[in-house]
């Protein structure tokens, strides 16, 4: 069953305005937070077990704890460069509840003593950016941003920054490069952004959903927040479900929720055929088969045990009419297109993978190319500055071994085993 | 020679002062150029921006070429970007794009003869629950059918 903490008032059109947001308890937690000590807020977030909702799942409070006490200006960056294919939760959050994000950000900024924050929004989200920009203006006009917020003595400025079309800018150091007015190429870590980030200053980068959740940890307390979810995956999370289900959309469920329940209850069941497979955490996550889906629960640990990941919380459901050669072709095209070109294994590897999958469809592949696909993918893992190379390799290493027969059939017969035709 | 309008120049000036470093103003300024130049950024516009911003051309070019949303050649009045990533491909956008190209007798990324359209296949635009979808200039159009998409393009003024 859905548990609506973040999304409780999302159906209320007025919730996106300051007035409507305040009518539903908006900025009450900010006032509460100002009465707390910043270190107590960090402790509460740490105790809540909140983990990064953008994809990596790193504990938020722990990340905040990495900030050095060297007196340097600290920056807070909200990662709203939602680019992981089939993820559309942050867009909804910004469009429906911009003040929820802003309040979460001011609380977080107060906790980490940051005077300035940016919301880095992907360039395609023009409408979301307009909504957020308007909300920031409302917040300034109401004294919720700027100098001496609510008489607390805390000053904070917030601005948005619009990207211009690059998946790689969702990687935190790539985002920092982009915000600095450069190509969005990731940087070697360490130093991590918390030590040396935006303009080489200590910087915390958190996802939209992560920052919005901070408000509710302050409202209900860490213990109450932890009541939802599992021991290692606390709280609720938004899942973007797309593909072959009757009711695709964003659903907020407690972590640990069975994937089959999400498909059957929230998403209205399968559409157009029987369940075949699912990509559980954005296209970078290795695919799981119908059999595995029966046992899958939506938490970090269960999916990791299955050799895949929760990632950004985007789920693509596929029915038995879907050709896996075709799916991999679409996915590998994406990573080839988005590789920033900085590291050789990724720049060359993503192209090679895409070419190899293409050759299966075009009828020029040999059966040995199936193993070559996996070999190339394996050599791309863990050898680059950022995780894009791994993100390109993992879908191959999921799909090819699990649906090897479809690749073999395509190469031998020259057409798709599933579709019965040459064009997958 | 391309030159920004007075308002455009004022915008660039404000952006230069808006962020901690002037280089952060490159992306917003390129957007401004694209808006005033009929949807794309020309070489002389980069030179103009360089003069205006006090940033070397090479530095602006680096940013210009990295990001896909800056168009490197002229595009039609309506830039139709069809999402062909996983969820939309599953919902038939690749075939839909072929249909557009066929009906408008144009290649992907090229402008139709009347200058109305440019069609491009793009990656995930984050509206997968409403697949198939496409973006025309700044607007999203969702839950399309080949028929509704065709009508929509026909009715664009």
Describe the protein's topology.
The complex is a heterodimer of chains A (424) and B (157).
Chain A: H1 18-23, H2 28-34, H3 38-48, H4 60-65, E1 75-80, H5 89-96, H6 98-111, E2 116-121, H7 126-141, E3 157-162, H8 172-179, E4 203-207, H9 208-226, E5 236-243, E6 249-254, E7 257-258, H10 259-266, E8 275-279, E9 288-289, H11 290-295, E10 297-298, H12 300-305, E11 314-319, H13 324-338, H14 344-362, H15 368-380, H16 388-402, H17 404-413
Parallel strand pairs in A: 1-2, 1-4, 2-3, 5-11
Antiparallel strand pairs in A: 5-6, 7-10, 8-9, 8-11
Chain B: H1 6-18, H2 26-36, H3 43-53, H4 57-66, E1 78-83, H5 86-90, H6 93-103, E2 117-122, E3 134-136, E4 139-141, H7 146-155
Helix pairs in contact in B: 1-2, 2-3
- First-residue to last-residue Cα separation of chain A: 36 Å
Helix fraction bin of chain A: 40-55%
- What is the general shape of chain A? globular
Question: Strand order within the widest sheet of chain B?
Answer: 2-1-3-4
In the predicted model, the low-confidence regions of chain B spanning at least 5 consecutive residues are: none
The major beta sheet of chain A can be summarized as: 5 strands, mixed
Rg of chain B (CA only): 17 Å
Mean pLDDT metric of chain B: 97
Strand content of chain A: 5-15%
User: What percent of residues of chain B adopt helix (DSSP H or I)?
Assistant: 40-55%
Tally of helical runs of chain B: 7
The assigned structural class of chain B equals: alpha+beta
């Amino acid at each position: 069953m859905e548990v609506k903490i973040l999304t409780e008032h999302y159906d209320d059109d007025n919730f996106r305005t300051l007035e409507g947001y305040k009518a539903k308890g908006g900025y009450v937690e900010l006032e509460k937070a100002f009465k707390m000590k910043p270190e107590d807020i960090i402790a509460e977030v740490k105790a809540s077990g909140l983990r990064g909702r953008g994809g990596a799942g790193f504990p938020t409070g722990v990340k905040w704890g990495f900030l050095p006490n060297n007196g340097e200006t600290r920056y807070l960056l909200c990662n709203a460069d939602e680019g992981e294919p089939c993820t559309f939760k942050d867009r909804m959050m910004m469009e429906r509840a911009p003040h929820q994000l802003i309040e979460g950000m001011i609380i977080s900024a107060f906790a980490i003593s940051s005077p300035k924050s940016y919301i880095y929004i992907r360039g395609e989200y023009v409408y979301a950016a307009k909504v957020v920009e308007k909300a920031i203006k409302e917040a300034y006009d109401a004294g919720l941003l700027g100098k001496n917020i609510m008489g607390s003595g805390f000053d904070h400025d917030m601005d948005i920054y619009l990207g211009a079309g690059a998946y790689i800018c969702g990687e935190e150091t790539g985002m920092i490069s982009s915000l600095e007015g450069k190509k969005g190429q990731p940087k070697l870590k360490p130093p991590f952004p918390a030590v040396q980030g935006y303009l080489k200053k200590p910087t915390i980068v958190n996802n939209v959903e992560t920052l919005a959740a901070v408000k509710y940890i302050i409202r209900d307390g860490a213990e109450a927040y932890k009541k939802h979810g599992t021991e290692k995956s606390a709280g609720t999370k938004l899942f973007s479900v797309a593909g072959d289900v009757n009711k695709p959309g964003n659903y907020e469920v407690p972590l640990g929720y069975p994937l089959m329940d999400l498909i059957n209850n929230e998403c209205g069941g399968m559409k157009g055929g029987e369940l075949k497979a699912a990509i559980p955490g954005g296209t970078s996550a290795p695919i799981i088969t119908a059999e595995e889906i029966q046992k899958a629960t939506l938490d970090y640990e269960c999916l990791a045990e299955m050799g895949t990941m929760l990632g950004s919380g985007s789920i693509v459901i596929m029915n038995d009419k879907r050709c896996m050669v075709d799916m991999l072709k679409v996915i590998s095209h994406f990573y080839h297109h988005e590789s920033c070109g900085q590291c050789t294994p990724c720049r060359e590897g993503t192209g090679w993978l895409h070419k190899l999958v293409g050759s299966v469809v075009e009828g020029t592949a040999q059966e040995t190319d199936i193993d070559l696909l996996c070999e190339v993918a394996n050599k791309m893992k863990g050898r680059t500055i950022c995780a894009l190379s791994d993100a390109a390799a993992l879908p191959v290493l999921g799909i090819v071994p699990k649906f090897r027969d479809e690749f073999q059939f395509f190469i031998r017969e020259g057409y798709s085993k599933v579709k019965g035709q040459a064009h997958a | 020679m391309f030159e920004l309008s007075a308002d455009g120049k004022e915008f660039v000036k404000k952006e230069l002062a808006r962020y901690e470093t002037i280089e952060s103003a490159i992306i917003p300024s390129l957007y401004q150029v694209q808006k005033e130049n009929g949807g794309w950024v020309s070489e002389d516009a980069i030179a103009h921006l360089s003069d205006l911003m006090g940033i070397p051309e090479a530095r602006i070019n680096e940013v210009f070429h990295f990001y896909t949303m800056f168009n490197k050649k002229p595009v039609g009045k309506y830039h139709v970007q069809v999402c062909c990533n996983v969820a939309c491909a599953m919902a038939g956008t690749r075939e839909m794009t072929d249909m557009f190209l066929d009906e408008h007798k144009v290649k992907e990324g090229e402008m139709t003869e009347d200058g109305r359209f440019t069609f491009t296949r793009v990656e995930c635009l984050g509206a997968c629950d409403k697949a198939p979808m496409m973006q025309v200039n700044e607007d999203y159009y969702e839950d399309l059918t080949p028929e509704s998409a065709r009508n929509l393009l026909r009715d664009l003024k």
